[in-house]
Design brief:
By secondary structure, the protein is an alpha/beta fold. Helix content is 22%, strand content 30%. The protein folds into 3 domains: 4-107 and 231-293, FAD/NAD(P)-binding domain, CATH 3.50.50; 110-227, FAD/NAD(P)-binding domain (3-Layer(bba) Sandwich); 313-372, Enolase-like, domain 1 (2-Layer Sandwich). The protein has helices at 12-24, 64-69, 126-135, 149-160, 181-193, 236-240, 279-293, 357-365; strands at 4-8, 29-33, 72-75, 79-83, 86-89, 94-96, 99-102, 106-108, 120-121, 141-145, 164-168, 197-199, 204-208, 211-214, 219-221, 224-227, 231-233, 249-251, 262-264, 269-271, 307-311, 314-320, 325-331, 334-341, 344-352. The strands form 7 sheets. A 5-stranded parallel sheet has the order 3-2-1-7-19. Strands 9-16-10-11-12 form a 5-stranded parallel sheet. A 5-stranded antiparallel sheet has the order 21-22-25-24-23, with helices on both faces. It is globular and about 65 Å long. 46% of the residues are buried. Bound molecules: flavin-adenine dinucleotide. Flavin-adenine dinucleotide binds next to helix 1 and helix 7.
Length: 375
């Protein structure tokens, strides 16, 4: 009898799980449940919708034909429950599964009592981008809460759409977890040059109507208050199923959850206590989950991750250890630094033009000699 592999979630993790499952098992019935009313799309391209640079068709990962060719049944309905070995979907259907992959992703995180209503929202889905588009007119002030990769990228698109953008960062520097101090400072200068106001050490205490209240008592008004301070994994189904869940669904390196035959991957999953929230990792984990759900034996290895951002008119790259000995250069083209131990590169930062990302990535992962990179 044919196996039925059910994948819940049509993000990159779910899609790559379905693809990998098909590769592993040409015969199985594969169902991919997707809660959004669009074909599975590239989530990192969602900000492009703000300025009409893309639409859901343009950012779709695959055409409808792909699902037909691969014999993957794409069901555009949310899974509401998993009971007695069956998934129960919002369209009322029930399907029994042999194995199940939870790739339910995550949603924007809001602090304390702040709810995503009125002007308060995140930017994660096509629907979020359209909501912003509808809410805003050229010249409107927008407050972006969060000076991380996604906040700065959203700020860039909002600025390009003609908004007056202020970024609030609770810490003392932009991307301060990814960059070194000089890199953070340079990025702040680039943001200001780009026409975006940056407020550091600005901690949000509450929202009142269209205003954000800071801990120091200051009040900042915006037509939209965009929160970009992280992601919360969608774990509701997993919790209801009684799976082990911390911040996200607990899985091992084979993407197996605490229940046999049930896998999880991507933003919904955590491996060794880490919930990565990154595209390539979600894709890789999805492929491992899908392969194993179809009877294969794949293992996911955590890579050394480079942080990459194209925003504020510059390229930002950070990878590896950013402590110890450093050689650096700063000029009109930007700030570049290599961290090394006895001449072998262990980390790199680049904020500026023409970043040789592939070269830096290779240099850090292979601990190349300093002589190999021209700053
Ligand atoms: C604006 C933005 C920009 C980003 N840029 C980058 C970047 O430059 N580089 C990078 O590495 N990462 C980036 N990321 C992060 C990256 O996009 C995510 O890590 C990745 O998309 C996670 O994929 P996923 O499939 O696990 O989850 P998601 O993309 O969240 O997809 C999960 C899908 O499952 C659906 N779903 C949830 N529950 C159910 C259910 N019960 N039934 C059916 N469907 C369900 C959801 O509707 C969603 O479509 C970005 C994220 C955002 C929001």
């Amino acid at each position: 009898m044919k196996n039925t592999i059910v994948v819940v979630g049509g993000g990159v993790a779910g899609l790559s799980a379905a693809q990998a499952a098909r590769k592993q098992d040409g015969e199985a019935r594969i169902l991919l449940y997707h809660a959004e009313p669009y074909l599975p799309y590239y989530r990192p391209r969602v900000p492009q919708l703000i300025i009409g640079e893309a639409d859901p068709d343009k950012i779709a990962v695959k055409t409808e034909q792909f699902y037909r060719d691969q014999n993957i049944e794409l069901i555009q309905s949310p899974v509401l429950a998993v009971e007695d070995g069956e998934v129960v979907a919002g369209d009322g259907s029930r399907e029994a599964y042999t194995t199940l992959v939870l790739a339910t992703g995550g949603e924007s995180f809001f602090p304390g009592n702040i709810e995503p209503e009125g002007p308060v929202q995140g930017l994660r889905t096509v629907a979020d981008a359209y909501k912003l588009q509808e809410r805003l007119c050229v010249g409107d002030p927008v407050i972006v809460v969060g000076g991380g990769l996604l906040g700065l990228e959203a700020a860039t698109y909002l600025k390009r759409a003609g908004m007056k953008v202020t970024v609030l960062e609770g810490e003392s520097g932009l991307l301060n977890r990814q960059l070194d101090e000089d890199g953070s400072r340079r990025l702040e200068e680039e943001a200001e040059n780009f026409g975006i106001a940056v407020r550091l050490n600005a901690r949000v205490s509450a929202v009142e109507g269209h205003a954000i209240l800071l801990e120091d008592g200051e009040k900042l008004e915006g037509a939209a208050l965009l929160f970009s301070i992280g992601m919360r994994a969608n774990t509701e189904l997993a919790r209801k199923m009684g799976l082990a869940v911390n911040r996200a669904v607990v899985v091992n390196s084979a993407m197996e959850t605490s229940k046999a035959g049930v896998y999880a991957a991507g933003d919904a999953a955590e491996v060794d206590g880490r919930n990565y929230g990154l595209f390539n990792i979600s894709m890789e984990q999805g492929a491992v989950a899908g392969t194993n759900a179809a009877g294969g034996k794949a293992v996911w290895q955590p890579p050394v991750i480079p942080y990459v951002m194209q925003a504020l008119g510059v390229q930002t790259f950070a990878m590896g250890e950013l402590t110890g000995e450093r050689v650096q250069k700063e000029d009109a083209k930007g700030y570049r630094a290599l961290y090394h131990r006895e001449g072998r590169i262990v980390g790199a930062v680049w904020v500026g033009e023409k970043c040789p990302m592939a070269l830096l990535r290779k240099a850090v992962s292979q601990n190349a000699s300093l002589a190999e990179i021209q700053l």
